[in-house]
Amino acid sequence: MRAPAMRAAAVSDALLEIENYSGAFRNEDGGLVPVLHQVSYRLKTGKITAVVGETGSGKSLTALSVLGIQPPTFVRSSGRILFRSVDLLTLDARGLRAIRGSEISMVFQDARAALNPVFTVGRQLADVHRLHHGGSQRAAMKRAVEALSRVSIPEPERRARQYPHEYSGGMAQRAMIAMAALICQPSLLILDEPTTGLDVTIQSDIMELIVELTRSRGLTTCLITHDLGVVAETCDEVVVMNAGRVVETGSAEAIFTRPADPYTQRLLSASQMLEAA
Question: Would you kindly state where each structural domain of the chain is located, as residue ranges?
Answer without folding.
Answer: 14-115+167-276
